[in-house]
Specification:
Number of strands of chain A: 20
Helix content of chain A: 10-25%
Oligomer: homodimer
Radius of gyration of chain A: 19 Å
Shape of chain A: globular
Number of helices of chain A: 6
Structural class of chain A: alpha+beta
CATH topology of the largest domain in chain A: Fumarylacetoacetate hydrolase, domain 2
Order of helices and strands of chain A: EEEHHEEHEEEEEEHEEEEEEHEHEE
CATH architecture of the largest domain in chain A: Alpha-Beta Complex
Strand content of chain A: 15-25%
Number of domains of chain A: 2
CATH superfamily of the largest domain in chain A: Fumarylacetoacetase-like, C-terminal domain
Amino acid sequence: MKFGTRDNGTRDGELMVVSRDLQRCLPAGPDVTTLQDALDHWDETQPHLQKTADMIEKDLQLGSRTSDQTWHSPLPRAYEWIDGSAYINHVVLVRKARGAQPPETLRTDPLIYQGGSGIFLGPTDNIPLADIAWGCDFESEVAVILADTPQGTTKAQAEKYIRLVVLVNDVSLRNLIPAELEKGFGFFQSKPASAFSPFAVTPDELGPAWKEGRVHLPLKTWLNGKLFGDPNAGPEMHFSFHDLIAHITKTRAYTAGTIIGSGTVSNEDRSRGSSCLAEVRMIEKIDNGTMTTPFLQHGDRVEIEMFDTANKSIFGRIDQKVVPL
Amino acid sequence: MKFGTRDNGTRDGELMVVSRDLQRCLPAGPDVTTLQDALDHWDETQPHLQKTADMIEKDLQLGSRTSDQTWHSPLPRAYEWIDGSAYINHVVLVRKARGAQPPETLRTDPLIYQGGSGIFLGPTDNIPLADIAWGCDFESEVAVILADTPQGTTKAQAEKYIRLVVLVNDVSLRNLIPAELEKGFGFFQSKPASAFSPFAVTPDELGPAWKEGRVHLPLKTWLNGKLFGDPNAGPEMHFSFHDLIAHITKTRAYTAGTIIGSGTVSNEDRSRGSSCLAEVRMIEKIDNGTMTTPFLQHGDRVEIEMFDTANKSIFGRIDQKVVPL
C-alpha cells in the first residue's frame, strides 16, 4: 500500500490511499482520517485500507489525480523522530570535517539522536533559512515509521514493527553543530525542521529491494537540477533498521507513528556522489586542502527521489528551495 | 484553570476540567476530548473550558471526585519534550560527578536536550527498570506546555506562548550517560519515559508565584516516604522559561502541546536537600571521598509535589515505585 497526506487545511491533513504508480488517490476515510489514526488502530484499519488500495489498483478510472493535490509530509507532525547515522562512510567523513574523531564504538554501537518532530516541512515546502552563515545542508535519507513497539524488542523481532518506509531531507545547520555538540547534550538548534517524501509505502511495495531491514536501491539527490549523488542505500548501511530498533528499545517503548531515519546515505565509492554538502566539502579538503563548495544559499534547490529497478518513482519527490525566513 | 487527563481506556485519555482544590472534575467535552485537542484549538476551546472551570468552582456539588479516577500524565504523549538544565548548581554538581567540566557557556547559553515524547508514564505508574546496574535516578522538575510558538520568538514575547505549567519526574539512567555522551550525539538510552503530575494548570493559578517565567515555590521530593529535598524552583533558575523559549525558537517553530522542562530543581543551600540522587552522591564524594547513597532499587518509591503558600497542592502528586521490567 502507498499513502499520502493531503493538505486539507487542517494540521494533520487527510489520509489518502495512493496508486502504486503515484498517479491517483482516494480518501482513506470516513473511519480513518489521518495517518496517525491509521497507525494507532492498524489492526482495525489495515483491512479497509488494503481494500481501498486494491480497488484503486484494479480500476484505472478511480480516484483523483495526485498532481491536483498539495501533499504534507505523510505525518505532518510525529510523536518521535529519531535519526540514526548508520552509514560509516558518512560518519568518518563528517567527523573529519569538524576535526572530531569517530567514536571508538563506531561499528558496534549505533549513533542516534532524538530530533524535533512537532512541525515537519512538507515535501515541496521551502526551507526557511534566517542566516546563510549557519551553514545550511541537506541530508538525503531513508526512514521507517513504526507500529507500537515494545521495550526490549530484539533485532530478530524488529521487522514486524516496521509499518512504512519514507524518504527524508534531514536539514542541518553545519556551522551551529560544533559549539552545540561541545556542550555535551547533542544537536538542538543545529537541526531545524526535516521534510519527508510525499508518499509512504509498506515495505512489501519495495519487493526484493527490502531486505534485512535495508532498502537496496540508489537514493538520488539533485542540487539546482544537477545530479549530486545516487549512492545505494542498502549494502553500506552498517546498522540496519532492525539494529536501530533493537538499540532504541533497550530502555523504553515507542508509540505507533514513531519515525527512525537511516542517517545520510553514503557509499565509499566516490563516483556515486554524496547525499549532503558536508561530505563533498571534506573530500575537497582531503584532495585540495580547501573546501570550495559552499553550503546552501537562498535560491538553491534540493530534490530527492528513489526509483525502482523499472525506473518508477517509489515515494514521489522531495523538492525544496532555500528561502530567507 | 486546572486540567487532568482521565484514563478512559484510550491512548490519549479524556480531558477533564479540575477544581482549584483538585477534589472534583468535569469532562471538558463533548467538543474537546483531549488536552492536545484543546491546545490545538485554544482560541475556540478556551472560552468553553473557562466556563466549565467557573461552574465547578461555584457549585461545590458539581462533578465527580478526582480520587475516583485514574490519571494519565496530562499529555499521555506529546509531539515534543524538550528538557533544559537551567539550575546552575545542578549542572556543576552532576558534571563533577561524572568527571566532566561544565561547558564554558554555562551562564550564557542554555543547556537543553530533545527527549522522547511518544509514551510518558502516568503520575502513579511504576517505573519499569530492567537492570539495577543502569543507575536509575529521579529528577524533580517544573515544566511548561506551549501554544503554537513561532520561530524567532524573543524572551519578551515568550510569556504569551505558555499555556500550562506541570511537574515532571525526568527519570534518568545515570550509568548509561557517560558512554552515551561520549559518542557526541547526546542522551538517548539513558533517558527512559518521564512521568508528569496528574494536573496541569494555567500560569494564573500560581498567582504571584509565577514571575518572569519562573515558579517561585519549593518543589518537594520524598524518597521512600522521607523528605529528600524542597529547593525553591524560582530564584536559582538561571535561565527562565522565557530564556528557554527564545533559545529553542532560534531555528524552528513548535506545535501546540510542546513541553519544556526546567531541568532538575537545585539550590546552593544544602539544607534544602536535592531533587535527584546524583547530586547527593556527588556531595558525599566531595565531603567524604565516597558515594554511599545508592541509585534507585526495585521497590523504592519517589513522590514529587508542590504546595502554594497556603500549603495546598497545586498539581497533585507524582507517586511512583521502581519495579522490575
